[in-house]
Amino acid sequence: MTASTLAAPRTLTRRVSPAATLRHTATLAWRSLVQIKHNPMELIDLSIQPIMFVLLFTYVFGGQMTGGHPVQYLQFALPGIIAQNAMFATMNTGFLLNTDITKGVFDRLRSLPIGRMAPLAGRIVADTVKQAWSMAILLAVGLLIGFRVKTNIGGLLLAFLLLLAFALAFSWIAVLIGVLVSEPDKVMIFGFTTIFPLSFTSTAFARVDTMPGWLQAWVKVNPVTHLSDATRGLISSGPVASPVIKTMVWGVAIAAVFAPLAVRALRRRV
Amino acid sequence: MTYAIQAEGLVKRFGETVALNGVDLTARAGTVLGVLGPNGAGKTTAVRILATLLRPDEGRALVDGHDVVREAHQVRQLIGLTGQYASVDEMLTGTENLVMIGRLLELSRAESKARAAELLERFELWDARDRPAKTYSGGMRRRLDLAASLVGRPSVLFLDEPTTGLDPHARGGMWDTVRGLVDDGVTVLLTTQYLEEADQLADEIVVIDHGQVIANGTPDQLKNQVGGQVLQVRPVDERDRETVAGLVSVVVGDGMQVEGDLVTAPVTDPSVLPTIVRRLDDAGVVVAELSLRRSTLDEVFLVLTGHRTESTDETPELVIEGSRA
User: Fold this and answer.
1) Which residues in chain A have their CB less than 8 angstroms from residue B184's CB?
2) Is the pLDDT score of B317 beyond 50?
3) Residue B319 banded pLDDT, cuts 50, 70, 90
4) Which residues of B34-64 are buried (b: 16+ CB within 10 A; e: fewer)?
5) Which of B35, B199, B277, B315 is in the most buried spot, having the most CB atoms within 10 Å?
6) CB-CB under 8 Å, B325 with A269
7) Calpha distance A205→A184 (Å, rounded)
8) Which residues of chain A neighbour B148 with C-beta distances below 8 Å?
9) Domain spans in chain A, listed from the N-terminal domain onward
10) Which residues form the ABC transmembrane type-2 domain (chain A) (predicted)?
């Protein structure tokens, strides 16, 4: 046995500095991203469902939607598909957080002298990187089969920023679910049962004026509508200011409600 | 005398369930404190409080003189925790797991890698260092978990059921490791359901049942506390068993048991031995075995709690707590 574990007298710090918390967050984000090196399938997993959606909506539904012009429908639907995908992808945060909690990794991290919020922040930073990746994939596939950015590069960047910001706000819901449920798979069940209806009852895939009046009332306030319209306006065509502002208001509201709930639930659970 | 762990009157409730109901624990620096008890006794809850993961509802606890609630950050700089589950990141390799901990503990990249390599070597994980932990066997994961808790050179180490689920060989290896750590000056708090483990490793044992300390002392003191010794008599001829049982119960009193041809009874007064010998001689019984031995911790536990340590409920304690919270 070496003397390596011998407890040396040490000076103890009294608190974690904000700079240290940032370093811990970066380390924990690295931890979530370096996994991709061992499991490149994860990147493909992140991409395969969105790609299938793009192809399905374009070539199966697209023709019927536009009277035989699938690419014309792609031009309309791709911003919606990107918006919907961003919302689904937030569930990963809840899934992986719950995995950490149930497997005891979270306990190990919390027993270390690191910033209290670093484990969660690291998770969210890593998932935001993955979000950006899957948005880029969707856009690339869209461009490959005929989608065209009709605004400019600035609009495209703003669209990505808005999507990432909204996803960040929405991921507080995923964090809350991830903390509350007993096993990771339940996060995914929640995701499918809420995000599916939420994203389809919006303007992501169809124009609101084609829907019955009672549905229009809901669709017009649905945050996914605003996010889809804003994305559409920023990268294709349509109004920009109004949907962007409404999306931001929704994002702030969601974060204001769910971030405190999620943090409180996390403190209680662990 | 310096205490590395001092806890007084710890109470923790989860809703209606009282997980801890006034538990006191002390461990002298550089010793092993064994916390012994069946599943659900409150062992894990006590460890989680001491490791700053859970706030006690009542009572207080100090680790190396620092309050686990008010000075949690200081305590976290002193402790290492190895949970009941191998809480390593399964997607990361052995090296990456340890480097991550090193980086979180503010070691430089180079220091983290050096420390990781040193621990991987020491725990015989060097050959598996570049494989994701999910490919590791149970024993390897447990070793990696322990290595992870040693990255920061803790002075107090919490081991929550470190050998549960390990085969006897891996268990023996873990025991050697714990002894080595104590030689290095580390204070260890170890929870276990295995009496043999507490007997082998602990300098002091605290027996917990239903959230309360029901006994404490050195392993020897605990054994003495319940009669101390066990008389065993095995007649050569099995037909003499009834005769033997009859006269043993007359001499010793309560507690006599017959298993096969072996008659056992707890004994407090060692002078019964000559009496038994005389009576056996008078009755003309020839014995194959006649001995007085120390009671095992298993017997101690049976006397203290009224039930055996074997638990039919294999659900890990932590999961039950998680769903309660």
Assistant:
1) 1, 3-7
2) no
3) very low
4) bbbbbbbbbbbbbbbbbbbbbebeebebbbb
5) B35
6) yes
7) 29
8) 108
9) 20-269
10) 41-269
